[in-house]
Structures are given as structure tokens and as C-alpha cells.
Amino acid sequence: MVRRITLRGRWLSTKTIPGIPVLWHLAWYSHSLRSKQTGACRVVIMNPNQLPVHSTYLSEIWIYPVKSLAGFRVPSAHAGWPGLRYDRQWMVVDAHGRFLTQREMPQMALLQAEIGDNGLLLSAIGQSGAQVFVPVSKSGGPLRQVKVWDDTVIAYEPSAEANRWLSDRLDRDVALVAKQPDVAGRTYRIPGHAPQALSFADDFPYHLISQSSLDELNTQLDEPVDVRRFRPNFVISGASPYEEDALSSIAIGGAEFAPISPCERCVMVNVDPRSGEKGRQPLKTLAGTRRRGNRIHFGQNVVAVREGTVAEGDPVLIGLLHQ
Predict the structure, then answer these.
(1) How far apart are CA 228 and CA 296, in angstroms?
(2) How many folded domains does the chain comprise?
């Protein structure tokens, strides 16, 4: 399936006004109205040699090698078209090849996936020695047809040992499958760029949340939650609460990104990453404050429009949409 994406923003050029180099940015958006294209534009000026308003910076980077297993935090990463390197390149499927997540199996939150030397390390959180290593190999393994939402793709099983290990811990017949190198069974398309491969992520290669938005949410909860509930790739700090709703562009380190849509939330945010148990919060509170129609939003789905390296502590230059 090809996802066609309309960008909210695009960098144009670098110019100078007396004493201040600035980035001119055209923030635009469009929608279809009875087959007619409509839109609006706004020019935003920012100074790339200074920290942006609010001193916004990248505070956390997270990678989730296996879809719906616990991820790990890294100090820096390469941000490419398909996402962060190794992010959601593997997933767990049932006997019929259908993807499994914490939505139906919350105990998956207690299994950790990390990238080690030349391979993937799976471990049971809090259980010393309960782990299995899966070498990263281009030679692959047995091929099988698997399904991610409405997409059917051909993946391969890299390790029979990992299949047994996961089945034992999830008490169900499951298998670990890997995305085939250089095979784009799932893609997305943005204007001005060739179609790009999509990992086993739900819909988009990157997910961003704001720490201040999470802090604001926690003021409304009896028991605070941390960022792991929302499984972001990027956490930015220093912005105003929910300012990410109005982003038209994001520049971090050597990479640039375009926000595509608010992230729709489901029961997965109710899974406690410490216990693997599902409760009623924070989705219940978000439903009362962040509902738009029949959808509940928190965070932003984004795509890369320029590849590069990002690191924790990098200043975040943002463009905002103005109505």
C-alpha cells in the first residue's frame, strides 16, 4: 500500500536581513473540497544561529527494534527516510502471520528489544539471563506472508530459537519476522520525493511528543505516566504545552522533518510498561481533553524531508502554522 502524504511545510532558502541570517519558510497546507484544491500560506522567520523560542531542544531519542516490544533510548541516531536505523524492522506475528501488539497482549511490554553487536537482543525485563540473541543477517531465513493492518508483505523468520523463546514467554504460538532488506512491501510518498519504504510501523516512520504536553497531562492524572506509554521516537522539551499541534516544520541536528498528522491514541497508552498490565488511564483523561470528533490525539506523526544525524540536546528549530 502506498500512502500519499501532503506536507504542511517546506524549507525554501537562506537569506539575510541586517545582521541576522534567517531561514525563510513557507508553511502551507491544503485539502480537497469537492475535488478543488484549496490552501493557505505563511512565511515564518527563524534565526538558526540562536536557540529558538522557548529554547526548544531534543531531550530523548527512542528506538523500538521489534514492533510493540519495549524499546531503548539512544544518545544519537541516523534519521533516514524509512525512520531511525533499526526502528521497527522486526515484529511478532501469530500462527496466521498477523501482527501482534500490546493492544491484545499487554505483556509484550515486559519484553525488551535492543540492538547489540551485530544483532538483536531480546530479554525479559527484570529476569536475569532470560534472553536470546538474533544475528542481523542479510541472508535471511524462511520466507512467509505476514499482515500489518491492511498491508500484506513477505517477511522472513531469522531465528527458530527466538520463535521458541517468544512463544514460551507469551504463552502462545508466535514467530519473530524481519523486514527484508531492500524490499519495499510498504511505502509512503511525499511531494517532490520518490516513494520511500515504510517499516513495520503502523502508518508513519516517526512519532514525536512534547515533554511539556506530557507534564500538562500528568497534572490531570492521579498517577503520573512517563513517555514510554506513548512510544515516541523523539521527545522535545522547552516548547509550550501542545505547541506541537501547530508545527509546520522541524529541524533537528542535520535532519529536517515535516509533521503529517496528529497521532491517534488507542488503549495501548493504558498499558503500564513497568507491570505489563492494562488500566483505564491516561486514555480516559485524554478522551475528555484531546478528543477531536471520534479520535483522541496526542503527539505528532512526522516524516523526514532531509536525512541526517540527530542527537539528544540538539536545538529544535520549528515553524508554526498561523491561522
Answers:
(1) 18
(2) 1
